[in-house]
Design goal:
The protein has eight helices and two strands; from the N terminus they run H-H-H-H-H-H-H-H-E-E. By secondary structure, it is mostly helical.
Length: 234
């Protein structure tokens, strides 16, 4: 797990031209979202209703701290009880993805200091290192958590219908944050793309590390009742 996480964080050093092109696409999408921030915010404001309010209350929970912590822990504990390695691995991967993306997202929020929509100062108001929650709009933390979890689960389950459902639920959480005027469109676009890429890459790297470890012959020192044993694995 640590090897996989390290490879993901160091990946930009070895990016190919295609990787940089993809990163540029994410940047371009974020800039395009910046140009539509006000229009989308106004659209959300015009479509407030009792039904949408209730739907938002439900959708936002997928990106909440309770889900971000509860799902990984629940998966891991279930794996322990059921003696299911897949569940334990998935729980660890989800937790690792949350830590990696949330830490960098929080740092970005503080450094960038973008004003939230409810502040009424426009989408181009920035107070770097201000530290107040009202100036921690970019990127969206709820969106980061939602897409990190969905990306890990989708990559582990490997089912098209599950993938569509998981990313759809994450998109609902992202939309709910714009509906409540906590985030701009560009906040959620960047958060969704960034967290999905990191979480998916983490799963891919982990499975590569696991396959390599299982394929290579090696010696293991195993504790025994009367000392230790040297085991050859192939």
């Amino acid at each position: 797990m640590l090897q996989a996480a390290g490879r993901v964080m160091a990946a930009p050093v070895n990016w190919s031209a295609g990787d940089w092109l993809l990163a540029g696409g994410v940047g371009g999408a974020t800039v395009a979202g910046f140009g539509l921030d006000t229009k989308v915010s106004d659209l959300m404001e015009r479509n407030h209703s009792s039904f949408n309010d209730h739907a938002t209350d439900v959708a936002v929970e997928y990106g909440s701290g309770a889900v971000a912590i509860g799902v990984p822990v629940g998966l891991y504990l279930s794996g322990l009880v059921l003696e299911d390695r897949w569940l334990r691995e998935t729980g660890l991967l989800a937790g690792a993805a949350m830590v990696m993306t949330s830490a960098t997202t929080t740092l970005g929020k503080v450094i960038i200091g973008r004003a939230r929509p409810y502040e009424g100062r426009g989408h181009a108001m920035f107070l770097p290192f201000d530290g107040r929650d009202a100036f921690m709009s970019f990127p969206s933390g709820h969106t980061t958590a939602a897409f990190s979890l969905s990306a890990v689960l989708a990559a582990r389950i490997k089912n098209p219908w599950a993938t569509v459902t998981l990313y759809g639920v994450a998109a609902g959480a992202a939309a709910s944050r714009m509906y409540t005027r906590d985030h701009w469109l560009s906040d959620v676009i960047f958060a969704a793309a960034y967290s999905s890429a990191v979480a998916h890459s983490l799963v891919v790297r982990f499975e590569e590390e696991k396959q390599a470890a299982g394929a290579d012959p090696s010696f293991m020192i195993v504790p025994a009742g009367d000392g230790v044993r040297l085991v050859w694995r192939w």
